[in-house]
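Researcher: Predict the fold of Response regulatory domain-containing protein.
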Amino acid sequence: MKDSVEPSGLAHQDAAPVILVLERDPLIAEDIIGSLGAVCDCRVVHASQLEEFLAKLVEEAHVLAAFLEMRLSKVVESGLDQTLAQKGAGIVLTVGEDDQKQAQEKGWGMLVRPFSDQMIGEALRSVVRPEAGQVSIP
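Model: Structure tokens for Response regulatory domain-containing protein follow.
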């Protein structure tokens, strides 16, 4: 599996927004990565384990969004929410649908499984803040 994916036909640009994906299932990860690449000109970085995700997160100066296969309580307990906030990242949870209200109160998105390409785009748009100088997602 590729660690980073860019939309086909687009040249790599260091300034391209970075989206991190934490997902254990390679097929689900590929679906999310492909959909994100179709939604925006971004660099998507995938990790299948939290330790790998944290190592890749450290390498990035700024992160547009993170799609996390983690429950809200685990994100908060681990402090990952604070680390991602420091990088400017919006958070989208991909598991724990019963946490949806709490996630929304925190300004986080929720991607409910099974999901579609459209739902992935909507989840990304829900956490990106163009008014704060972030890239606008069509």
